[in-house]
Amino acid sequence: MDTPFIFTMHEGLPRQGPGSNACTRKAFSLLAGLPPRPGILDVGCGSGMQTIELARTCRDARITAVDVHQPYLDDLARRAASAGVGERVATLRASMESLPFPDASFDVLWAEGSIFIMGFRKGLKSWRRLLVPGGSICITEAVWFTEEPSPEAAAFWSECYPAMTTVPENCTIAGRAGYDIVATFPLPASAWWDDYYVPLARCLDSLRAVAAGDPGAEAQIEAAEREIAVFREHAGEYGYAFFILRKNR
Questions:
Q1: Residue 199: CA atoms inside 13 Å, Cβ hemisphere, count?
Q2: Range of the structural domain that residue 50 is part of
Q3: Which residues contact 5 (CB under 8 A, 6 or more apart)?
Q4: Are 243 and 181 contacting, i.e. CB atoms less than 8 angstroms apart?
Q5: Is there a domain that residue 232 lies in?
Q6: pLDDT tens-digit profile of 228-237?
């Protein structure tokens, strides 16, 4: 099966979605009651900038990083080895919709920029079984920062992620799915630019040559350009937020 161009577009980038090491560390610092050697599952890890930062932050953690795209996992394995944390990071190619682990396998489930693939509600319900009693889940999700977004921003997100809602509404969804809200915080605009949009924008010209003659691939490039342009104009209206949740029953 051919690799979807969306994966090819993001190969070699520091991140495959918004985020930063500072935000990863902040979210981890809000966890409490972890065992001495916590087991962490990083779902939709991509090339694993956050995976490596977690391994650096919690030096006793055992981390399993899962993604469907093997080149991302290979990149993560190389980076983890270079960072000196390779022995504590295991990679596995698997779908987030059918994770091959027994119930109560992990103390923490981590997912930066990936739960939108399943949807916030479905992801929380599906992954909950993997946590030990009282286990934690730390995720980032696209949210509205305003109740009245501009027509351009509203039109863009209604096309690519119509389920996007606000932080309070997502907290309600999480509560109904069996989680207590430990904390939430918005990611700064720099978390979109520094390790995601700026490196991606630098690659778009060379990607056009790869995509030439493939209407689907060309459309992916146009969509990326539009996404960057919309964020440049409307960043105050939406963004990503971290949700730190605890399994409550």
A1: 16
A2: 10-151+163-191+237-247
A3: 211, 214, 216, 217, 220
A4: yes
A5: no
A6: 999 999 999 9
